[in-house]
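Reopening this one. Same input as before:
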Amino acid sequence: MLGILALISAIAPLATDMYLPGLPIMAESLDTSAASVQLTLTTFMAGLGIGQLIIGPISDGIGRRRLLLGAAAITTLASAACALAPSIEFLIGARLIQGLSGGAAIVLARACIADRARGNGAAKLFSMMMIIGGVAPVIAPLLGGVLLGPVGWRGIFWVLTAAGVVMVAGVITLVPETLPPERRHGGGLKALVANLGYVTGNRRYLGYALAFIFGFGALFSYISASPFVVQNVLGLTPSQFSMVFAVNAVGMVVSATITARLLSRVNARTLLIFGVGLLTLSGFALYCAAALFNSTNPAALLIPLFVSVSSIGFIMGNATALAQGEVTAAAGTGSALMGAGQFGLAAAVSPLVGIAGPDTAVPMAVAIPTFGLLAALALTLLTRSCDAEEKLSTKR
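Same output, byte for byte:
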């Protein structure tokens, strides 16, 4: 079940990164401009955010499994439609549907775990899910580059269709309904508004959710800017960039693995605070190297960058579990707001880290520690009462 849910969560990086090497060929094949082809990425990312906002709250009223099965099926059909697209307009529409259904599937997968586990147990499951899903960003661009020659860009979407078929079969055979009828809110607009109020009125949820969102903002700053920083600023080759990207991704997976092992002895909140602190300090070191000293030494930039990316493994799973644990009565709504914030911030970050052009690392070096500080502020200001309650519980 965890493997299937992880595959569902990995659909975003797979559907984003696999076809990127084929964008120039797609423009030529569909007789359109590069800007029009790039819209297929924009609409997909928008769909990811909107799909989560719509389906998450609905699932709190009618359950997870049927919606998850439907989302996986629509994602599969949309991937096939992308492969068969006769025009760029058709492809843009198919990518929007793929994003909407993919976003719905992601939020439901996260809610399924929140329904079944609490506390450190949930944090361990989310960390394990991140380990499995963390392989996708490493494999996707490499796999897309390998497949592009033999099967073309349409073949890449057929591979995504096959992954969708596996998702559908996995949901049918391995994923039960995780939200029993007695825990559902009953549906209706009134209940939906009440759930939104319940979730957004919980300060601790907001603190942990913001730590999750800002952590992802730091990660996406790296993802968006690193191709230009590594190749244009540091002068490394595309193949060397692939190596750097893979090493950093492995660092993130290793830290998530360490998190999963430590959770039997260490509190999830403690590990989250450690991860946010590590992100902030390593981000500041990166800022000093890139902005204050204007260094182009690969070691001076790549070492703190590796630590920054690796720290995400301590943040994402723990922040997700702690946030979801605060709103168990509306896990779908809580998951939806986190996902919408995650991809909404990602859409805003991408142009910001490129605002100074492709030949500087400064915007990325500013963004990463800034998001670390924002995550630290969210934890300090919104979840501070957790520490006092833990001390009181210990005295009792």
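So the earlier flakiness isn't reproducible anymore. For the record, The radius of gyration is 21 Å.
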